[in-house]
Amino acid sequence: MRRVRARGAWAAAAGAMALALVAAGCTGKDAAPQPTRGAAVSYLTGQAGGDGRILAVKIDNVPAARPQTGLDDAAIVYAIEVEGGLSRLMAVFDGEHLPPVVGPVRSARETDLQLLAEYDRPALAFSGAQSELLPVLRSSTDLTAVTGTKDFYRSHDRPAPHNEYLRPAAAAAKGGAAKDIGLRFDAAVPAGGTPATTASAKMPAARFSFTWNGSRYRVSMDGKQSPWTADNVIVQHVAVKESDYHSRTGFVPFSQTVGHGSAQVLRNGRSYAAAWDRPAASDGTAYTVGGHTLPLHPGRTWIVLEP
Predict the structure, then answer these.
(1) Where is the signal peptide (predicted)?
(2) Average pLDDT of the chain?
(3) Radius of gyration for the chain, computed over Cα atoms and rounded to the nearest angstrom
(4) CATH no. for residue 163?
(5) Domain range spanning residue 150?
(6) Per the structure, how many domains does the chain have?
(7) HSE, side-chain direction, 13 A CA sphere, residue 259
(8) Does the structure show a pLDDT above 80 at 13?
(9) pLDDT band per the 50, 70, 90 thresholds, residue 246
(10) How many helices (H) and strands (E) would you count in the chain?
(11) Residue 133 in 3-state DSSP?
């Protein structure tokens, strides 16, 4: 069984000064050097200060789980389709910028394995997984699985399963160091694109919209505004097939983030029709317009893997 969907992914970024290449428009691939680490610039946000060890956390995203906790401290937030066409979030943090609590935490999927392979063995915190998938996660050389430790706890203000939270410091310490995942940043607005103050993305049973307020994007989910904001939004169109790890509840989507396809990139109130390319699981993801690297605004990015 095969379906086509859309998604968003990224990779992190370059020395602040090194990326002033975009004076007149999008940076060409041949003009986009690897990030210079002497400037201590984050691979994930393009902001000064560098990165710590990397932690990804699977976050519930049904109405009973909202508002979530800690998302505005994430460097990158992925929105991923799960069973029933619903969405789940994966928040990626660096260990130097952690909230005290993250959640509600939910279960992992096969999509997470491929998506996180472009990082350097990050920690992945989750509440559980399908019985055949769980040992695969625990033995993976692409990530360090973190589940069921004393740092997870249940809150009494919500019903299960929407009430499991994580104190993330110990989990983050198990993650690999930050690496270049392909993202490039520049505060200068690239030439091209079109003015766009709103944009949307959808899954079969989930909707996202993003509204530019003059400084960042306000995030709404299923028609309701959330507390969360983003400096950049990527709607990345991806192919979706059925996961090898099945569920009694029906079709389990596997969003394929290795390959290439189209994307919509939003920054500074403008929309760019872009292409994404990730040749292999160990490679970062490039976002280009007309064959030229499209830099993001330094800051937090939401990537929607749209079917």
Answers:
(1) 1-23
(2) 89
(3) 18
(4) 3.50.90.10
(5) 2-306
(6) 1
(7) 15
(8) no
(9) confident
(10) 3, 22
(11) helix
